[in-house]
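User: quick one, fold this
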Amino acid sequence: MKRLAAKGRGCGATSARWLLAVVLSLTAIQAHAATAGRQGEDILTIVENHRSSAVIVLAPSAGRYERQGAFDLARYIGSMSGAAIPVVETPGEIERALSGAGPLLIVGREAFEARPDLAVALAAKLKRHPYVRTDGIILQRDRNRVYLAGSNDESDYFAVAELLRAWGVRWFMPGAFGECVPAEDALRIGDLNEVYASPFEIRSFWISWVGDQSGRDDFLLRNMMTRADDLPPAGHHLGALTAGLGKSPFEIPLTDPETAEHVADSADKLFAAGKNVSVAMEDGLYSSSGEDNAGEDNAETVSPQWDKYMLRFSITDAMLTLYNRVANILHERHPDSASRLGFLIYSNMFLPPVRPTKLAPSLFGMIAPIDIDPVHAMDDARSPERREFRTIFDTWAKLTEGRLTVYDYDQSMLVWRDLPNPSIQQFRGDVRRYRDAGILGIDTESRLALATTFINLYLRGRLLWRPDEDVDALLDDFYPKFFGPAAAPMADYWGAIDSAWEASDVTEHEFYVAPVVYTAEVVARLERSLRRAEGMIDGMVATQASLTRNENLYIQRVQFVRLGFEVLRAYLDMTRAAATDADYSAAVAAGEQGLSARQQLTNRNPAFTTTKLEAGYAFWPGEVQQYRELRAYTDGDKGRLVLKLPVDWNFHRDFGKVGLQRHYYDAPVDIDYQPGRGSEYPPERRKDDPADRWEVVRTDRYVQAQGIRAADGQSALGDIWYRTDFSVTASEAAGDLHVMFPGLFNRCTLWLNGDEVGRRKYDDLWWKNDYRFEWDVALGAHVRAGANALALRCHNISHMGGMFRRAFLYQPAAASPSK
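Assistant:
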């Protein structure tokens, strides 16, 4: 029969709660029976006492995933119950099966062949005018027959996965490690009648950074997710289409009509063949050409708009002028082509256009909020950035008339350290907004790295399939199935992690947020919960030779958590030693210990981490190397430590840039008002501190992590000032004394005893700098024997401000004669 149209127009729980969940789970296991659908008097038995007379019916012309679904159904029934169920797929076998009275599981098109009304019922639930695809399923029992079908080939598999899910099978992570298959003596079906279609056409992820691909495709299918194959590509490609124009791919005359003709010529062959084409910008920052900045054409197409995220002028108006012209040229040449043009909303083409714009219908956008707070939801009052993104997103959704996909990142911490990075606290709120905006869906860049992402992708899949899914119920279901008898302490462990991120005010997305989220109190709680979990599986470990598959998996999963905890603890020990204590020997030792634990994770399963692209100071091995190099400046190799400067410094905000005029660098510090001293003052309130007084901040974490923000909660602070005093002996003052700032953001100026002694060059786009973030300043003759006053001004116009590692004074080692 003709298939239904698949293409269109183009956080922490209490232990008592988890103990109850475990008891209920174990009770269900002891019953050794699973029923799909509502239980009642009329029950269809598929398996009883490991035996079955059921048959799976599959069309001879079944599609790839329809066929995989039927055979996976037979395989999982066998894995659960030990019963062997045949799949019949020849006309004669099908006819005999349909004429019998035994239980039948009818998959895919054979279901619609037998019951055409099912297709009608399903069609009523599908998206009426999809751009790319629409996915829906129908599961219905009629006496001895169970119909499992979908709106397209993949959806046939989704229907099978839904039945297996009702019987308790789960795929929490790709591969065997994440699969949960209960052991059952009996499998039954009660009153079953489910018809459902997802509101999202795109529900996909891909694995980047050379992450492990094992099991990805099956994981997608079994969690109702799709590949993004049907989506117009939006990979960086404009440079290839503009070859020969401009000084570089980022310096082209965007609004020149000849540029549009050039791009159209480059894309013509593919467009004529009806193939989708990416016209997406390259991965970088674009400069408007002279043609875009002057003249009559510019007056019609370009309106300068400062992008505070990229610290450049937005080129959105100019780029959309180019895209519309290209689309119109290609459509005039090939009016019957169904080709779509994909473009990226990214970099300094992220902000919506200023001028009224209507997009050509062949243009499909993909918005990638790479530098927007990934921790909080769009409606979270703690995140002005995220609320700004809400407006940006809503505008693009309307402008594209729903031809929009969100390209997001999970893990959301981009340069990270294989530590847990949950995303559910952000995604569970935003997914409904995405649905209500009527966009195509989500395409996620993941590295897999399960020690980091854990069950993020599973929860995403469930919410993309059903945006109103109860996340707490999903978690209640997860822990007993995944950890067995260790469910309660593991729920407390991961619940503490979720709660730490949920409670955090950080809006940044790299490794320096780790000690802010994972406080000493959080780590202590994690260790207590982990020890309890290990105690609950100790008996299993002792008798491992006689354990079931699931029991072995419970052990492996708790061991996985243990190794992940060792990575976390070692990394935090390292950062504390370096950032707080300026003890680089201890930092290196802890870092090496953490890297060893991480390697053990990788050895167990390459999907647990992603390390293949690590090179340079940005990554964990590079951070350890940085501490080795800093150690050399303190242990006599390259230098001798003179003094560790204090952790606490006096601090002053300078929104009005009056600090120079008022001599913040050498005027007396009035520190009577000190609400920020230590960690006693709540960080969430520090943004409201008076801006005209000195206060105290720590230097082992950047100031926004301590609650220092603008009154409206924004990260950009303008000028900020640090002050401290130190004393040295006459011999030390006479030497070549340097101050090392081992972790410092922003452009800076340094004063010693009222004299300017250094200016730091720094790209205000912090990610374009050397990831050591060091500044080494020779103090020279400005040092006095006895007391000295040091003042540091940082110009913080984006994201992180100030110091995040403790500064120290050192004297370089004397150069050898050979040098």
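User: anything notable?
Assistant: The radius of gyration is 30 Å.
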